Predict the structure.
Amino acid sequence: MQIPVEGENIQIHSYKHDGHLHRVWEETKVLKANSHLLIGGNDHTLVTESDGRTWITREPAITYFHTDLWFNIIGMIRDDGIYYYCNLGSPFVVDVEALKYIDYDLDIKVFPDMTYSLLDEDEYEYNRLHMGYPEEIDHILKRNVQKLISWIRQRKGPFAADFIDIWYDRYLSYRS
């Protein structure tokens, strides 16, 4: 795996289990990177969907990816607090093109008061059957949903009180 240089801009590509490109985030600033972890930041970045539609993110965000976890976390900085969008997906890899992972449909949205909702269970079940997710993947993802909920409840990792603020300050230092 190629390790990006801190301060470098990279793309993020999510794929579906069948290998089809799902979504591309055009530009994320690498804030920390090693062989197991990548923390990035972006703001008003272009996102391209698999059908060619595009949209621009509305607020600054800090992204958290880890090679040992079957989820990634986006902390979105809004006027009324930090919202998190957590994607259940494969551990990431990085090559010369982008940071890449497989999106496995399930998501958890976390609100500023740390309440949360599990999203897209119907989409997961549909794709699990139609794309033939192996039983092992199903078990891994269900365990990682529980791990992610535990992190939220314990305020661990990106959910810690000052995590997003610290990394957002680092992101801003690259913009000045």
